[in-house]
Every structure is written in structure tokens, then in C-alpha cells.
Amino acid sequence: MFTIAPQIQAFLDFSSGRIRIFPGQSRIKRWVGRGVMKFCQLTARKVANAKKRGHLCDGAGLYLQVSKSGSQSWVFRFDFGGRRREMGLGSSRVVSLKQARQLAREAREHLLRGDDPIQLRNAKRDKIRAEVSSRLSFRAALDGCLAACSSE
Questions:
Q1: pLDDT tens digits for range 113-140
Q2: pTM
Q3: What distances in angstroms separate CA 7 from CA 15, 16, 138, 149, one per listed residue?
Q4: How far is CA 147 from CA 23, 36, 135, 136, 138, in A?
Q5: Hey, which end of the chain has fewer CB within 10 Å, N or C?
Q6: How far apart are the C-alpha atoms of 37 and 71, rounded to whole Å?
Q7: Is-contact 39 49, C-beta < 8 A?
Q8: More confident residue, 145 or 90
């Protein structure tokens, strides 16, 4: 059995049962003495100056998507269940480059365990919505208070 260096594991997809390099990785990585070097890794300045419509690659499936109007958002591209998927990570005004890399890293960890990161995110969001909706609303508290006061 062989082991894979952690620097290289981040670029591989094991969920399909075979080793496959993430989309766009073959042209942006190169072997060097201590690991993998990414050529198209974005910087904060490149993100701030991105105006041209399209996708700018940061590596390992993370892209900065620039729309026609110039708005920017982070997208994580991956394959799951034989389908190409895109997971939005947020606007570049709200989510920094460092945070986007961390979110993409967490999504890759879910993929390595065989979980769909989009379904996990939606389940977490639904749980929070259910928790918030089950809380006592202001209107219900007011009605209860008025009913208690009127019975006295």
C-alpha cells in the first residue's frame, strides 16, 4: 500500500472509486522538490482588480466568478455522482480569499468522505431555519402577555 502526501491529496478525487484529478488541475500544478506548486494561485490584488467576465482559477476547484456587471463571487467546482457541480461560496466582498480557500478545503474533505457538500450545506441551512421558526415570535409573546394581563 502507498501513501499520498497531503499536498497532493487536496488535488485528487477519490469519491468515484478511482483517482481523478480535479478539473483544470493538470495545467496548473508542477512537481517541485518539496511538493506541488500552483501557478495560477490568486492573490488579493488579482481578486480586487478582476473586471473581465469569466472564471479565474485559484486551484483545486476554487474559482472566482466575474459576472457581466463586474460582480465577483467564489465558486467551488467538483464532480459528484458522475455530474459536474458548482457550489457557491459567497460574494468576494463578504468572503475573503483566505475564507474561500478554507470553505473549498472543507468541501473537498466532505467529498473525500463520499458526502455531497451541497446537500450537507442545505441540510444545515434547513436545520437553522427550523430552529429559528420554532422560537417564540414577538407576536406570540405579545398575545400571551396580553392574555395573562387580561385574565387578572
A1: 999 999 999 999 999 998 888 887 888 8
A2: 0.64
A3: 18, 20, 51, 66
A4: 62, 68, 19, 16, 14
A5: N
A6: 29
A7: no
A8: 90
